[in-house]
Amino acid sequence: MSELINSDNMNDADEASRIPAKSDAELFSERQIRSFPRSNKKVPISVSPFSLKSDPGLSHDIQSLFISPHGIEFQVPADFKDGALLKIEVTLPDFWTRKQRVVEYRRIDTPDTFRILAKVIRVEDIGKRGRKKHIIAQTVNLDPSDELVLRKYLEEG
Q1: Per-residue pLDDT averaged across 79-97, rounded?
Q2: SS3 at position 113
Q3: Which letter does DSSP use for residue 81 in this model?
């Protein structure tokens, strides 16, 4: 009986090793960002490396080139490595008013941003000296209600 169980486990392991693993870059395409309706809206964002501590000195306030629930494309004067995790705060006009149409809870404060955790997929130098970087990042974590607010915002004309 134990021989049968061991041979079954070995077959599963052999089968798993024959299936080629796909990297995040292969599964994700920048077309997912750019093909999203009206993804070229310029949205103010704040980008910083993901960390448990917040260091305002590492944050960069910029505008997105393309944004969608799948990811974000932007240019920044910082060097982020492929695979790095980024904390991105997105500022939408009337964010809290928009979010109240989606959720039914009350808050004392009225937030004007939401956060996205994203993974750097591609980094390209731009400009003669390469001081500025063109970044494409894939969304790793986005609150479902914030995603709905972003989708509705992008659908607006």
Answers
A1: 93
A2: strand
A3: P
